[in-house]
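In response to reviewer comment 3 from the previous cycle, which asked for concrete evidence that the modeling workflow produces usable outputs, we include below a single protein chain processed end to end. The sequence was submitted unchanged, and the resulting structure tokens are shown without manual editing.
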Amino acid sequence: MNKFFALSSILLSSLAIAEPPPVGERISFVSCPAVRDTRSVPCWTSDYGGDTYYLTIQSDVSAAVQPPLLGHQVLVEGIVTDNPAICGGIVLDDVHLTAMPELDANCNTILPAVDEITIDFNPRPPGPSGGRLAFQRDPSTDPPPPPPPTGPQVFDLYFDFDKGISFRHPGILVGILDVAEKLGPSRMEVLGVRGAHRLSDGTLLRESGNTGRRRAEEVAGLLREAGITVPADVSWTDAVDDADGIDDWQSRRVTIILQP
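The workflow returned the following structure tokens.
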């Protein structure tokens, strides 16, 4: 009996000192998010592998990273950092979040504000810029104007898992229109890619079978309506066999090529 209790103590001790993933490791998981109230702005976290990860703050719809949704699990992709904890969670770099489409009644956690957790309005991206709405422009931060475009111009639009155009895409589309106006293209190519994602536990998530086509046709239609009326070659493909858990978010894309 003494040996049993000794073994149990060793196992419990091992669990108690379990370490989070090492700094720099890429992790990806699907889990329920939780939103915590604070004195400044709500923040979002999610638990995975016994650890809590900070996701983002509640921000406006045009922010680069959209907050999760209660009632839905969230696909989290990021790189572990050793930055000070935010909202009680481990901070991830290069964060990509997607609210999964299926409803999940278990994802309903709302945590109250506590004195131990305070948060700046914009502790780090993702989030609004310095407290301003993302639609507002600060001319002092504008880069110098680029030289006139020459040769084929290539643009990539990246998407949330199984999703199409969102509020964060208009700025990119406007940039494409600006280049097209300067270049005067003779032809446009639009390639939609159906992507996949390999989770840290080895699970492979595949986007819906028509996602690449849906994205390509949606983007091509928006660009045509906005004024790019040159002949367009619209196509689509799959990238589900290439998912390895490293930057898989880049497989969820539409590539636009403007030919001079």
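The two ends are 81 Å apart (CA to CA). We consider this sufficient to address the reviewer's concern, and the full set will be provided in the supplementary archive.
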